[in-house]
Design goal:
The structure is a homotrimer of 136-residue chains. Chain A has a single domain (2-135), classed as YjbQ-like (Jelly Rolls). The first copy, chain A, is elongated. A five-stranded antiparallel sheet of chain A has the order 1-8-3-5-6, with no helix packed on it. A three-stranded antiparallel sheet of chain A has the order 2-7-4, sandwiched between helices. Chain A has helices at 20-26, 56-68, 85-95; strands at residues 2-8, 15-18, 33-40, 45-51, 98-104, 107-108, 114-120, 129-135. The first copy, chain A, is an alpha+beta fold and 136 residues long. Chain A has three helices and eight strands; from the N terminus they run E-E-H-E-E-H-H-E-E-E-E. Chains in contact: A-B, A-C, B-C. Chains A and B meet through strand 1, strand 3, helix 3 and strand 8 of A and strand 3, strand 4, helix 2 and strand 5 of B.
């Protein structure tokens, strides 16, 4: 059995944002056992799971990823859309554009410290679309 | 319901290649709602989603990833298969060996700019196998 | 049809560990066609597929990833849990916390050289939990 919903996120500024509650608030009723797939329809944003407690982890994601994949690196030839565009594409494939989470007893079966991060890699990303599919 | 097909890709040279049409041409008939899983059966190649319009993005993927994970890095001890082998393994796990895409109204529900990239990380990768599974 | 099992891994030291046989030994009976999802419930560990033959590949994963995402980088502000904590969170999102593998003829349809790696990114990670979901 498949249930699917497409949602539009509120505007997020560049960085890593905890959206576990936002996702849970948009889920259809979950089965006893199954899987949830969360998919961002963009190539300059991402979805990942990481630490849900200390906000400094999200700050360090922004700081370190900017060091690992810098804005305006001299290697880039795709520069017409700005110095933040090509690194956003790279980060999107390195971090990933979807996560799949098990469902157990009608709930997301996340670990204690796992939260869903929406990753906005552009300076001004605008409205972003997500497709959530539940199968059981 | 599950449908599955295994295909052999044409030889691709090292780099990032847009294969959305090739994949769509090999899909079984898609359900109204569901998910497609595309899986490469190799540890020195990858699959990801990224920008489908400007070919310079694919050139920058090759240029920047080679800078981030260089051929012949002095750290490598696994060097018997050539200077391009160990970085290919690393890129394969950093970029990933599969993508999962939602299906909506009998079509891949990709964003406007999302295309499927096949990533050949070896200098001479040869024939590569992909397994496509559709579930609904 | 969904089958699901949650397992606790034995303690692994920091590094990359081939757990294909451990996973296969914990799988429910596999369908003719389907997919297996393997999910680690932690934000400082990971799961990936890579070369299953030469152990030097796993050594190079540890060596190179430590160079790419170093312990104690001066950028980190999340440092209370030790110099290995923030890089563990970063690696966990770069490598990923789950893999999805096709099932064909009642077996994992992996390539010849593909094995399942459990990635322990902490110096002392302790007991780690994995959820395996089979759907068909």
């Amino acid at each position: 059995m498949i249930q699917q919903v497409e949602i539009i996120l509120p505007n997020f500024r560049r960085g890593y944002h905890l959206i576990t509650s936002l996702i849970e608030g948009n889920l259809p009723s979950l089965p006893k056992q199954g899987v949830v797939h969360i998919f961002v329809k963009h190539t300059s944003a991402g979805i990942t799971l990481n630490e849900n407690a200390d906000p400094s982890v999200r700050v360090d994601f922004e700081g370190f990823l900017n060091k690992m994949i810098p804005d305006g690196d001299p290697v880039y030839i795709h520069t017409l859309e700005g110095g933040d565009d090509m690194p956003a594409h790279l980060k999107s494939s390195v971090i990933g554009q979807s996560v799949t989470i098990p469902v157990t007893n009608h709930r997301l079966n996340l670990g204690t410290w796992q939260g869903v991060y929406f990753c906005e890699f552009r300076d001004f990303g605008g409205k972003r679309r997500i497709v959530i599919t539940v199968y059981s």
